[in-house]
Each structure stands twice: as C-alpha cells, then as structure tokens.
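Side project, low priority. Logging it here so it doesn't get lost.
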Amino acid sequence: MVLFPEYHDMLNELFQLLIPEKMGPAYMKALAEHDTDALIRAAAAHFRSREERSYCKEIDLSTCSRETADRACQGNVTIVNVPWNFPDGKINWFFNPTLETPPVNHEWLWQLNRMNFWRDMCAAYQETGDEKYAKAFNDQLYSWIAGAGTYGEEWNAPGSVWRTIETGLRMMYSWALTFETFRRSPHFTDENICLMVSSMYRHALHLQKNHRPRNNWLLMEMSGLYTFGALFQEFSCAAEMRHYASQKFSEAAMFQILPDGMHDELSPDYHSVLLSCAFAFCRISQCEKIQSELPEEFMEKLELSFESVLKMATPSLTSPRTNDCFTMSVATKMKRAHLLFPGRKDFLWGATERKEGQQPAFPEGASSLLPWAGFAIMRSDWGADAACCCFDGGALGMGHMHQDKLNINIFKGADELIYDDGGGQYEQSRHRAYGVNSSSHNTILVDGLLQRRSAPRKLETPEGMHWVSNKEFDYARSSYEDEYGPLVLCEADLEVPLTKPAKHIREVRFYKPDFFCVKDTLNSLDGAPHSYEMRLHMDTLKVDSYPRHEKGFLSDFGSTYDILVLPLFPEEVETALLSSVDTPPMGGWFVGRNDRDLHKSTTLTMTIAGKRDCTFATLLIPVKRSEEMPEIKKRSAQIFTLRMKDKEYLIDLENLSK
C-alpha cells in the first residue's frame, strides 16, 4: 500500500479524538506508549468486535442487484442513467464523462461520490459471503480517501467530491452500511478501518461547519452528522454533534413541512428526502438507545407528512411526478411510516400494498384537497383499478420548481394516461429546459408563450382553490394570471420582455367513477386577440383520430386502459399531434429521470386562434377498447349528456361545481 501524504495526520487526529476508556485496555496501553502500529491494531480490533448497529440492518437493500455489484467491483457503474467503465477497474472519483460527451451533467460526478453501488456490493456480500466484494470495497475506499483529502473552499462546486449533499448521504447510507457490513472481513484492513473512521469524523466536521442555513440540503447534512454522532459514540465530540444536528434538523423540518403535510418544494422526490432523513433520525436514536432531541410536536408533523403521501397516491401506489421528480413508491415510504407509527393501520395498508391493515378513512373520503400545497386529488376509490386525477393549482414550490400551474395528471388503474414526466435529469440540455416548463405540461400556452412566474414559491395562506367533493363528483378551480415568456434555450431568450396577455381559469370536474371534464376559460388582459393552445401529453406514439366524434382522439397504450379525448366545441379548435419536436416551444418528448430515459411521446394540441376570449371544454375518459364506447349528445349551447356503462351523466358547463 502506497501511503498518501495525509495518511499519518489522519491517524494521529483519530487517536486524539477517541475516548480511551471506550476503546479498551489494549488501546489505552498503546496510546500511553505512543505505539502507532499497536493503536491501529487495537482500534481496528475494537471496531471489528463491537456490537452490531441495528440501524444499518434497516437500510433498504430490496432494490439491490448482484449484477450491479459485480459490475461495480470491475469499475463499471451507471450514474444518472449514464454508464461508464473505468479503465483497469479503478474508479476515478474526480472524473465526469458528461464533460466529454454532452449534455453536461455535473450530478454525474457528485452522485458517483454517493457510492450507491456500494449498497449493492453489501447486499451481494451479505447474501454470498464472497470476499471479492470486501476486497473491491477496501480498494475503492482507500483510493477515495487517498485522493479526496479534505474539503477546500469550493466544496459545493462542480468537480468537488465534498459537496455537502454527498457528504451527508455517504454518512447516512453507503459509508455507515459498508463499514458495518465489511468490518469483520480480513480484506478490510486494519489501516483502512482506522482511515475510514477518521474520514467519517472529517465528514461530520465538514457538515457541522459548512451546512446550508435551511433548505433540503440541511436535512441531508444534519442527518449525516447525526448518524456519525450516534454510530460512533467513541468520539469525544459525538454527543455535542448529535445535539447540534437534532436542533438544526428539527427547526428546518418543522419549517419545511406545510400545514397540510406536504414538503414545501412540492415534489414527491424531495418530500421523500425529508421523510428518509427524519426516519433515519428516529430509528438511529431508537436503535442506539439514546434519547432523541427531536421535539414531540415534530413527530406530530412528521405523521401528517407521511399522511399526505397517502392522500397523493395514484392507484398503482406511486406519487404523481410534480416538480422535479421520478416515479416514487408509496409503499417504501409507508414501510417507514408504519415502523414509526405502528398504530396507523392505513400506513400498514400502504406499506403492504393493500394486503394488510385498513384502507385510508380520511374525513373527506378517497379524494383530497391539500390547500397549502395546492393539489386537488380526485379519486374514485382506494382500489387498484381506481380513476384518479392530480390537479395542480398551487404555488411554484421552494425548490426544483416547474412552470406548471393548472397541470393535470390522469390515471386509471396501473396506467398513466395523461402524464407529467418529472422534468428529466439535472443536465444542461434543451430537453431539460423543456421538461421544467409549461410546454411539457398539460396546460395552455398563449401565443406560443409559456408560464414564467417567479412567485409565490410558498403560500402564506392556503391557495384559494374552489373545492367541492361528494359521492357524486369532485370539483376544483384555480387560475393563472401571471407572466408569460418564451422557452429559454439561450441567453437571448432571457432578454425577451415578459407579458401578461391573458388570464387562464381552469375548472376540473370528476364525474365519479368514470370521467373528467376540463373547462378552460381564457380572457385577454391586454384587449388584443391571442392564440390559445391547450396541451395534453400521452406516453405513446399511437394516438388516432376518433371517428365517432369530430376532432376526438383515442390513445393506444397497448395496456389495460386508453384515454378518449373529446372536445365539446370541436368547431372552435384546430388539432395537431406532435412527436419529437425540437423547435420552441417543443413537444412530444417524455423527459425521464432515473427510472425512465428520454424518449419520444405524443403531445396533443388543441388551438383556438384570433380571439380575445374563449373557452375550451374537454372530456377525458379512461376506456377499455373491448367495452362499449361512450355516447355524447349536445342538448344546448352549454349542456351535454354522456352515456357510459348504462349510466347517463348530465354535463352543464355553466354549473360544474353544482
């Protein structure tokens, strides 16, 4: 082993910080004799033989893959969906292949340094006992410590392995788990055990000194700090670090959780960050039998935050992709919720994917309004075959926001019929720019311009959505009357003045349990006529005209359900189907992230041009092609009837809320 410059400094620092009485007689004797080799052996022997850390057993390894572990041992990794095979199997922790092959994504290097593939190596080792995983881990760990040094002044800059998000996440997950998993392996050397513990102290010190003041980063930073202080109580600073982390974390989390339970970034992904960090705090303190400093009112708010996940759940028990997000499992979150709140039978129901416990019984029924988050969830029932709509009428969110007010997502059973893709990877590309803007959402463009609001990011009072929910129907209404501008693909687009050409009011009524009616009212604010373009996004390339209704369309997903789109005023609209359009405002792309890659899709547009004021009225009907299609009849200018499944519905566009 070739020693790196800081090798001895790290060991000497470690031996000064450990509490001798906790380390045992052999360590105390070596410390008194200033015998470095003996100190290494004694410290390593202590950490190899100490009691197991129960928290590490609870780190979720259910998604781990033996193939991923084997590839990682050879230096072959996939980060943010971009694979890379390091020459000779030696990982270069400072390398980012997207700098050489755009689009540039600085997250590649940062997320490489989360060492998530170490979890796969741990799972494979626990299952097989094959020492090749321990040896690969030992070598990769040493190469990281030898190259990383200590954080510099630009620790959060691109190219830094010390960004505080990664520093916190390493401590919470990959480093805590690998240390516990491999500590008894002969291939995890005594020197490396000591170096890793020393480096973890430097991780904790970095997090305590250089954390963010409040946002979701602080949650990860303080969780990492708390993990160190709880799992390594041999350090003289451990208790003080735990207390500091608890105080900062609880203050931040209490601020970030809205009164309706949603996280203030309005993204299920970053809501999950909050829940994961809070779970780590709670379970570590329980497992280590140390009293948590988290206040009682925090646990009450945390329960509400888990509850909001259930309220937002799709029929397939995932979360709608609002703001920056990928497909999130509700069951994963509910497993944690049930451990913390075992009395909640609905949490058990979610954790077991409806197999145990009791389905939610909220006072408002299966549908819910989250007034602070601004989400109206319209749901026919809690079954796996339910129809569901998520209507976004709220604020931007405190981070990772999209220009997506009035967006709708439609689900039927396991099928996502009208999608929000979540905005894609954090890369520098035109598809990423498209993915976070309103042209990629199910809303309306004005003169080809997109929503460009800058506020509010968080509501001081509940969003003023009109909401009605009963056994027969759900109804929600919200509006957009802020600024519009072009899709920003270059700096010149930022120079285009923003305008307020029109006000958009959207009403959504769910005729339970069968279909949705969307009414959009556009009013010119500048007195001029405009072109208004409604967009609906479907993750299929097979969308066909529906011959039984003028300018109607029917999807073909090749699965259980399709979506029938029927404009009630077809004579008013011009329709088009877009796919893989790269010219602004773009269209026909599913901008996937993590679980999905970028791919072609279909954007259905319906346009009314040359009018100051206009109204779109559109029926969105989940259907099975094997069943009889609905029949619609116009009774008067604003009244229609729809017959479906031997039931007739009255559609009164002037009284959708009644």
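Brief comment: DSSP finds 19 helices and 28 strands in the chain.
Revisit when time allows.
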